[in-house]
Task: structure prediction
Amino acid sequence: MIETFYVHLEAKTKTGNWSVNLPFLCSKCGVCCTLEDFLTAGEIQSSPETNQEVYAKFKALTIELGKLFEQDENRYNQYIAHTVCPFQTGNICSIYTIRPKGCRQFPNTPFGMLSKDCKALDHFKKQKMALKKSRIIKETYHFTVDKIKPVLFSKKQYDTCIGKLLKVGITEEEIALFNSLNRQ
Result:
């Protein structure tokens, strides 16, 4: 199972209740990987003893940022907002396995849903709206490292969901992930 964020959608209809899990499939575009996002994402998920190079780089960064902040707070704010995360290499996270929780749970983060120019996030939002259309839906957000939320739907409801997703665009990879999160 791919490690990813998903939304659990639940609806009550005249014909019965249904629920489905809609996954977010990151395209690894790197748009979300700014220095500001990294700094607000929480702690790196390892110890300094285990990853000395990572912590040395982080310590050097905090010293540099502290000096910049002391010199000019506005310049500091501009710098962190427009600088790529120091652990991003070619749109890929070089510390992926130990990345902070905020990075791990993207886009369900304070900075995540506000990201601009992320085609995968825009695509996810369109898919979510297609499934919600004309219905009162309860949304809960989850991450696949936790227990997957159980789903409830008939064959017809499943086919309707897939039909709606096909209309707004869904790739074969997304269908496979959708199916793995919605096994009954």
The chain has two domains: 5-27+118-181, 35-104.
